[in-house]
Structure formats: structure tokens, C-alpha cells
Amino acid sequence: MPNPQFDAKQENTIVTTYLIEPQLRLNKTWNQNNVLDVLAGSTFQKSRTTTSSLFGLGFASDDITQLNAAASTFGSSTDVSYAFNSLFGRVNYIYSSKYIANASFRRDGSSRFGPGHRFGDFWAASAAWVFSRESFAGNWHFLSNGKLRASYGLVGNDAIGDFTYVDLWQPVAYGGQPGARPATAESPDVHWESTTKFDLGVDLSFLQDRVGLVVNYFDNRTGNMLVNKPVSGQTGFGTVGVEDNLPAKVKNNGLEVELNTVNVRTRQFQWSTKFNFTHQQNILKSFPGLATNANYNQIYQVGKSLSPFFGYKFLGVDPTTGTPKYDGFNLDGTAQNPNSSNPGYQYLANTDANYYGGCINNFTWKGVSLDVFLQFVQGNTVYNTLYLLNNSSTTNFNQLTDVLRRWKNKGDITDVPRSATAATAWWANTAIDRRSSRFLQDGSYMRLKNVTLSYSLPAPTLARMKIKEIRIYATGQNLAVFTHYKGVDPETGADVAPPRIIVGGVNLVF
User: Fold this and answer.
1) Distance (Å, rounded) from C-alpha 48 to C-alpha 78?
2) Distances, alpha carbon 349 to alpha carbons 278, 416, 436, 438, 487, in Å
3) Facing residues of 272 across strands?
4) Which residues have a Cβ under 8 Å from the Cβ of 175 and sit 6 or more positions away?
5) For residues 365 and 451, what is the distance between their CA atoms, to the nearest angstrom?
6) Cβ(312)–Cβ(432) under 8 Å?
7) Do the Cβ atoms of 182 and 198 come closer than 8 Å?
8) Cα separation of 472 and 32, whole Å?
9) Can you tell me the distance from the alpha carbon of 365 to that of 268, in angstroms, rounded to the nearest whole number?
């Protein structure tokens, strides 16, 4: 008899893409000090993805994979197309190798938007000043290169599904008869997402390029954000939502620093360092109607980060009863404001890091090379689910030693509530406790991300062996982490640490 547990699937996907980009370019130099570069072009892109799938259920044996041997078979297919057209132009002018100006414009069209919304106009302008070439910098012997630069522009985004602006239907069988049912709801007004970008930076190098410094400030403002908006299940599209533009405005700004140095350089030994640092923030600047928008008013707050944590504020443990205290609630669990639809629920923390970066040190001595990569993150807030499960007497998991500090007697001062169950305490096993700031922790850390030690045989030895290169190496990843976080992994908040990997090998080049 056929075994219904044996099944097979055959799938075929064909992706066809056409891309044509004709361009015209003019480059002209005159009076030795003037360079003009003009570019005009267009883009014609079209792609088509077809997929066909056949399924077979109920084979007599797992060794049989021919679909016609299955007790029942069925199939499905998809056919999706995407087209993108663009006209663009760019003008770049350089005077005396010191002053640089650039302007560009493009008109993009995407098939992902409906009639009247398919085309968007985007542009950018930039300028730079190589001040190290000025006469006043002639005596600055320590400065190898110095450039100030700034840019401002508008870019677009069409990253949504195809044909979401119209009703989509999919075939379905009903009562043994072929038919069709709605798959997605139309969104005829969905249009381009737009972002204005401002950058201001300086590029410096010193001491014959032994020290290089790049500092960049950026400020990006995004509006008409493309999202998959949740809709009521009563519409029939509750599981797929509707593609739409949010009226919100988002600000993403920050500072990036990159420092490259050659610390020591002799005939046989060299030590170099690459350091990078980033501070950025993503802030919701405005969102008309947010207060009454049930899909988002429990997730975002104007003026706060786009990576917030909402919940209930833990105020400590009552020393008389051992009961945890929460903002907006009395000790007996009753709301201080009974008219509130969600009393005590509030913005608690920004889960984004204040800053992050890394540092790579490379040491070479004769044929020996050592690379050490350190990664650091400061100020990220992590919801410690392990601490929730293992520092609460209301669960049946093994407990952390912190439970030894729990409240036991009247007058105890501690941040760990008394032992309780759902039958003996109103707060035990409730969302108020589970979603409280009691389990938010500082996830700052420094990780020894990668260490590689290698040795390359010298050229005379390789010549005698008639081999171009022999390199022996050993690499370790995720070797150590330094943090005050009480969970397993402060980077992801997961209960499983990233694996520590040790790899060794030999590279031969003949």
C-alpha cells in the first residue's frame, strides 16, 4: 500500500533578465586647469521569473521518486515580471585639481507602481575642496592630503512586491470545479519611497600617508516609507496585508570615523592598525494619526528610536510584601488609572547601540603574520529571555544564582521578588512581569572576533621547491567576549552563543 508519509517534489525556476544601458560621454580638458566630464544615458531592464512545481504524495517506497508512481499528484506555477526604465545625466567639473563640483539627475520608472505613480525624479549635487593643494598648505609638511566634501540629494526606493497596486487572484478548486479567489487587495496609490541624503566629510592623511583619517557626518530623512500594512482579518487579507506608504518621517543621522595607521615599519617588521567607529540614531520625527493607529501606536513613539522596547516599568520590590512594583499599578495589581486602555504600558528603552566599531591590528615579521580583530558595541539594550526564564520562581526551569537574593522576610531590600505562583500572586506569569524592564539589560560588549596566525615560506625556499607560494595558517573565530550582560549572547540576545571555530590549513600555489 502507498505510504502517505513518502512524498516528492519537482520544481523548475527560470529567471530571464534583459539589461540595456546605452551611454554617451564627453570628457574635455582645456587650459590644463579645467576638466569637464558629462555623462548621459538610460537603463532598460526587464526580468521574468517563472516557477512550476509538481508534488507527489503516497509512494509505495521512499526509493521511488517518479511522480507518476504517487497515489496523488498536484502542481502549481507562478509567472512574475518586473520592468525598470531610467533616464539619467551627470556633470562633473574639476578646476585646478582643487575644486570639484558634481550634479546628477535621473528619472526612474518602475512597474511596481500603478499608472500615475510609476515615475519619480531624483537628483544629487556634491562639491569638494582639496585644500592640501592650496599655497597656504605648502609648508604643512606633515599633511599628505586634505579634502573637504559635501553632498545633498534625493533617492528613491521601489522595494516592494510586483503588481501590488492591483487585485491579484489565484486559482483554487472548489467542489471539484476550477475557480479563483482574491490573493491580495489592491493598493492603487502606492508610490515611490523617497530619502533626502546629506553628507559632510573630511579626508586627511599625514606623514607620507602613514596615518589616514576619514570623518563623515550623515543625515538622511525618509518619507512615504513602503511597508506591508496590516489589515483586519475580516477583509480576507489579514495574513498578507496591503502594500502602502506610511505618512511617517524618519531621521537617520550619525558620525562615522575611520583611522588607518602604520605604527611601525622596518625592513623586517611592520605593525598597522585599522580602526572604525560609528554613532548613529534612527528617530521617528513625525507620524500623523499615530495616536489612533492601532497597528503602530503600541510599537512606535514620535521622537523615539525606531528600535524601541515597550512594556511595563519595574520599580523594584516592596520590602514589606516582596511584591514587585510596576509603574501604573498598585501592589494588589489594580490599575492606578482604570480608564486607561493599557495602563502602565510605555516606552522603556532604545535597543540600538550608542556606538559600535572594530579594530584590526596586523603584525608581520619576516614570513610570520598575525591579524587580530576586535569588535565592540556600547549602549545596546537587550531583552534577556534567559534571565526571564531562569530568574523567576514562577517557572519550572533551572534557576540562576540571583534567585538566592530573592525577597524572603519583611524588610529585605532586593530587586528579586518573592517566590510565587500564578495561584498565589497576581503578577506571576503575566505579561506585565514578563514584558517589564526587570529583564532589560545593558548588552555592551567587546568580542575577540577573529585571530589569524600564518607563516609564508621565503622566496628562495619556494624557488628550490618550484612552488609559487606555501602558506600555513590557523584561524580562530569568536574566541572571547567581554561583557556585563547576564545572558548568553549580547550581540543578538539569543540563548545560543555563536560557535567558537578553530580552523587550520595550508595554501599551495603552483
Assistant:
1) 10
2) 20, 21, 11, 12, 18
3) 262, 362
4) none
5) 16
6) yes
7) no
8) 52
9) 5
Q: Which three cell numbers stand for residue 126?
A: 556634491
Higher pLDDT, 2 or 429: 429
Please report, for residues 92, 93, 96, 253, the alpha-carbon distance to residue 32 in angstroms, rounded to integers and kept in the order given.
16, 13, 8, 39
Q: What is the dihedral of CA 291, 293, 298, 302, to 10 degrees?
A: -50
> What is the distance between the alpha carbons of residues 270 and 370, in angstroms, rounded to a whole number?
11
Tell me the average pLDDT across 320-349: 87
446, three cell numbers: 567587546
Q: What is the pLDDT of residue 273?
A: 97
As a whole number of angstroms, the distance between CA 87 and CA 95 comes to 28
- Could you give the C-alpha distances from 284 to 27, 293, 306, 329, 344, in angstroms and in order? 44, 15, 6, 29, 22
| Cα separation, 16 vs 12, whole angstroms | 13
pLDDT in tens, 363-373: 999 889 999 99
Q: How far apart are CA 124 and CA 21, in angstroms?
A: 20
Q: Which of 56-70, 79-93, 207-221, 286-300 comes out lowest in average pLDDT? A: 56-70
Amino acid at 126: S
Give the pLDDT band of residue 107 (cuts 50, 70, 90): very high
Per-residue model confidence (pLDDT) at position 1: 46
Distance CA 381, CA 277 (A): 19
Helix (H) or strand (E) holding 431: helix 431-434
In contact, 347 and 308? CB cutoff 8 Å: yes
Alpha helical stretches, state H, 286-422: 385-390
Residue-wise pLDDT tens digits, 123-166: 999 999 999 988 888 788 888 899 999 999 999 999 888 888 88
User: 124-128: long-range contacts at Cβ-Cβ below 8 A with a sequence spacing of 24 or more?
Assistant: 124/151, 124/152, 124/153, 124/154, 124/155, 124/197, 125/101, 125/151, 125/152, 125/153, 126/100, 126/101, 126/102, 126/150, 126/151, 126/152, 126/153, 127/99, 127/100, 127/101, 127/102, 127/151, 128/99, 128/100
Q: Distance between CA atoms of 194 and 156, rounded to whole angstroms?
A: 5
Give dist(CA 446, CA 459) in Å, integer.
38
Q: Which residues pair with 228 in a beta bridge?
A: 243
Sign of the C-alpha dihedral, residues 174, 179, 183, 185? negative
* 3-state SS, residue 464: helix
Please report, for residues 52, 118, 159, 335, 337, the alpha-carbon distance to residue 84 in angstroms, rounded to integers and kept in the order given.
25, 10, 12, 55, 54
Contacts of 287 (CB under 8 A, 6+ apart): 246, 247, 248, 249, 293, 296, 300, 302
Task: Give the global pTM.
Answer: 0.82
b/e per residue, 470-500, with b = 16+ CB within 10 A?
beebeebbbeebebebbbbbbbebeeeeeee
